[in-house]
Design goal:
The complex is a heterodimer of chains A (286) and B (377). With 286 residues, chain A is an alpha/beta fold. Chain A has twelve helices and ten strands. An eight-stranded mixed sheet of chain A has the order 2-1-3-4-8-7-10-9, sandwiched between helices. In chain A, strands 5-6 form a two-stranded antiparallel ribbon. In chain A, strand 7 (180-185), helix 7 and strand 8 form a beta-alpha-beta unit. In chain B, the strands form three sheets. In chain B, strands 2, 3, 4, 5, 6, 7, 8 and 14 form an eight-stranded mixed sheet that branches. A five-stranded mixed sheet of chain B has the order 11-13-12-15-16, with helices on both faces. In chain B, helix 1 (11-22) crosses helix 2 (36-45), helix 3 packs parallel to helix 4 and helix 10 packs across helix 13 (366-374). The longest helix of chain B is centred in the middle third of the chain and has 18 residues, at 146-163. The N and C termini of chain B lie far apart (45 Å). Classes of the chains: A alpha/beta (286), B alpha/beta (377). Chains A and B meet through strand 2, helix 3, helix 5 and helix 12 of A and strand 3, helix 3, helix 4 and strand 10 of B. Strand 2 of chain A pairs parallel with strand 10 of chain B. The structure holds thiamine diphosphate, iron/sulfur cluster and magnesium ion. Residues 30-31, 34, 36, 65, 135, 139-140, 214-217 of chain A line the site of iron/sulfur cluster (SF4).
């Protein structure tokens, strides 16, 4: 953990966001108070910290408000179809393993329509960093319930309250075989930057479930007074860092979602396995 | 020249050889009868030539990964049949609008739905043309023998790379599963086309450069950082709401194919010079038709065969011209009438047009065709 002084020092260093943005593509489409932009900020800082080259980054997304991110960043960018980001990304990565592939996806994109690609990318442990922006709604289509909408919550397609239990993207990723699984929020930006950095330097499928707010739809429908109120209630008060959680009683942990790195293991990466095993065997046997 | 050594190959195996010959370096797909041997063959052959094979979790993943592979700069392919083709449709449209070179092999089986997996069919002809929402360009080639599957697969890659668009290799289960002797062409024997590379400065690069009908395509990671989207976009690849730009690009992607039809068309004519009745068909049905023509010619009947190797864009000009000099065009097809409507459209009433349909999972026989021809002579 860094000290407060260190944190202040870091924040005071001017960060050149424009180095990574496409300033002529701004303003972005996101509403005031939307968490997606905050996540982008953490991502750009993490990319810088990891020392990645713009030419070597390929950012792939699906469809949704979150998936609009690639349009604003100065990398090789691929905005695909709803749910298919990880499948397109798998192709890019396998074809050109030297690229650093980053997937930006929404909770609907990754876990509903794209659930199958999500599971299997994790299972293969193909080297890519996946940022799932979990705002518990389908923002782009106007606030329908998503696979992470809490029980009883109101959405435009659950006017009487949601009866579908929500998914836990982290448990899903871990069970599927992802070798780095973490959770962050748009509220805890410094922690998020660090988590994203650690995911970027991890070899294999790294998944970060990032809780962020859609004040426009989820917020209004569920009577949150403001975007900040929503962030405080869901992201600040509704979560706790895994390290801190160790000191808390089950009572105190009730209703809290864990943040931080939840799972990290080493396992052979898909593209390396392909090159080291398949290509070797194929070329050695005449 | 010494007689080249021939091998006995299955149609689907010839497809694999054609893809490798054309320089395909990436395959992603999901197994499905009767196309599975293409995937199996690619999984063996690709790693030997430095290429990549991946079996995805479904057909959507297969084509999506193949598009990704192509954007990363590798010639890419996916293969499927029936239900798999239905699943690939959204991504086919993506490749059309994002202008990504891609070869899609569809080995036709009976449908709809799971239908008749092991039975031959030619019922995807319209699915190949219209199988994705929105207006979009389509090129589809239709080989009818094992050696031709090889050469047409090479041509499909060439067309895909040249026009930056998905190209389908469409053949029925009979052609896909039959075995014939085939000589694998030597390097240099067949033309191999690569996509035009970007040569300008990265800051001047537009992936959809307005000055070109088909703009050069830089691979991801080559220093040209650009944006690709399935949304309507400007020449720089970024989304737009400008109705003029949307209109221009929606038309341009169709025009790429339309204005180059003459170069994309490929027809084979058999005994058409003095023909009074013509047969128009593809794939294994063309083999029955050729047999029928030979038999009928022996009895002095003036019948010939027009066999398109490019079914999309439809060979309008050849059919229109033919319709003016024959009494009838017979269109046998293993479906309930798909090509026949196109032939009628092109014939414009100049001659009779009659279809022969068959959907029982059995091939159309020469006898069926001869019977139909005789009624017009
Ligand atoms: C095949 C398909 N189905 C549905 C849609 C409509 N659609 C667009 S975005 C979206 C949901 C996006 O939700 P999420 O992925 O959570 O992203 P968010 O907008 O919340 O960031 C839907 C249903 C689509 N574009 N394509
Ligand atoms: S609708 Fe919701 S998710 Fe979309 S930009 Fe607005 S706040 Fe963000
Ligand atoms: Mg969402």
């Amino acid at each position: 953990m860094s000290t407060i002084a260190e944190k202040k020092e870091k924040v005071s260093v001017p960060f050149d966001y424009n180095k990574y943005l496409r300033p002529n593509k701004l303003p972005h489409i996101w509403c005031p108070g939307c968490g997606h932009g905050i996540v982008l900020k953490a991502l750009l800082r993490a990319i810088d910290r990891a020392g990645l080259e713009k030419d070597n980054i390929c950012m792939v997304s699906g469809i949704g408000c979150s998936s609009r991110t690639p349009g604003y960043v100065d990398f090789n960018t691929l905005h695909t179809l709803h749910g298919r980001a990880m499948a397109f990304a798998t192709g890019v990565k396998l074809a050109k393993p030297e690229l650093k592939v980053i997937v930006i996806t929404g909770d609907g994109d990754a876990l509903a329509i794209g659930g199958n690609h999500f599971i299997h990318a994790c299972r293969r442990n193909i080297d890519m960093t996946v940022l799932v922006m979990t705002n518990s709604t389908y923002g782009m289509t106007g606030g329908q319930y998503s696979p992470t909408t809490p029980l009883d919550a109101i959405a435009t397609t659950s006017r009487y309250g949601n009866i579908e239990p929500p998914f836990d993207a982290c448990e899903m990723a871990r069970a599927s075989g992802a070798t780095f699984v973490a959770r962050g929020t748009a509220y805890h930006t410094i922690e998020l930057e660090k988590t994203v950095h650690d995911a970027l330097v991890h070899k294999g499928t790294s998944v970060i479930d990032i809780i962020d707010a859609c004040p426009t739809y989820f917020g209004r429908a569920n009577k949150f007074k403001s975007a900040t109120h929503m962030m405080e209630a869901i992201e600040k008060d509704g979560t706790v860092n895994v390290k801190q959680a160790e000191k808390l009683t089950p009572e105190q942990l009730k209703g809290k979602v864990l943040r931080g790195v939840l799972h990290k293991v080493e396992r052979p990466e898909y593209c390396e396995q392909y090159e080291n095993l398949i290509m070797q065997k194929a070329t050695s046997k005449k | 020249m010494a007689q080249k050594k021939k091998r006995l190959l299955q149609g689907n195996e010839a497809c694999v050889e054609g893809a490798i010959y054309a320089g395909c370096k990436f395959y992603a797909g999901y197994p499905i009868t009767p196309s599975t041997e293409v995937a199996e063959g690619m999984s063996v052959r690709l790693p030997k030539v430095g290429g990549k094979f991946i079996q995805m979790e479904d057909e959507i993943g297969g084509i999506a990964a193949a598009i990704g592979g192509s954007l990363a700069g590798l010639k890419s392919m996916t293969a499927t049949s029936g239900p798999g083709l239905s699943l690939k449709q959204e991504c086919i449209g993506y490749a059309c609008i994002a202008e990504v070179p891609l070869v899609i092999v569809d080995v036709m089986r009976g449908g709809p739905a799971t239908g008749y997996p092991t039975g031959p069919s030619q019922s995807d002809i319209m699915a190949a043309k219209w199988g994705t929402h929105g207006d979009h360009p389509v090129i589809a080639v239709t080989p009818s023998s094992v050696p031709e599957i090889l050469t047409e697969t090479v041509r499909a890659f060439n067309l895909a790379e040249q026009y930056r668009t998905p190209v389908m290799v469409l053949y029925d289960e009979i052609v896909g599963h039959m075995r014939e002797p085939i000589a694998i062409p030597e390097p240099g024997e067949l033309e191999v086309v690569d996509r035009e590379k970007a040569t300008c400065k990265p800051e001047e690069y537009f992936p959809y450069d307005d000055r070109h009908l088909v703009a050069p395509l830089a691979p991801f990671g080559s220093g040209y950082r650009f944006h690709v989207t399935g949304l309507n976009h400007k020449q720089d690849g970024f989304p737009t709401n400008d109705s003029k730009v949307i209109d221009r690009n929606n038309r341009r992607i169709i025009e790429k194919v339309e204005t180059n039809k003459e170069r994309i068309w490929k027809n084979e004519e058999t005994a058409l010079d003095d023909a009074e009745v013509a047969i128009f068909t593809i794939g294994s049905t063309a083999r029955s038709a050729r047999f029928a023509v030979n038999e009928l010619r022996k009895s002095g009947l003036k019948v010939g065969l027009l066999r398109p190797l490019t079914i999309w864009p439809f060979p309008d000009a050849a059919v229109a011209e033919l319709s003016k000099r024959v009494n009838a065009i017979i269109v046998p097809e293993m479906n309930l009438g798909q090509m026949v409507h196109e032939v009628e459209r092109c014939a414009k009433g100049n001659c009779e047009v009659e279809g022969i349909t068959r959907v029982d999972g059995e091939p159309i026989t020469p006898a069926q065709i001869m019977h139909a021809v005789r009624r017009f002579l």
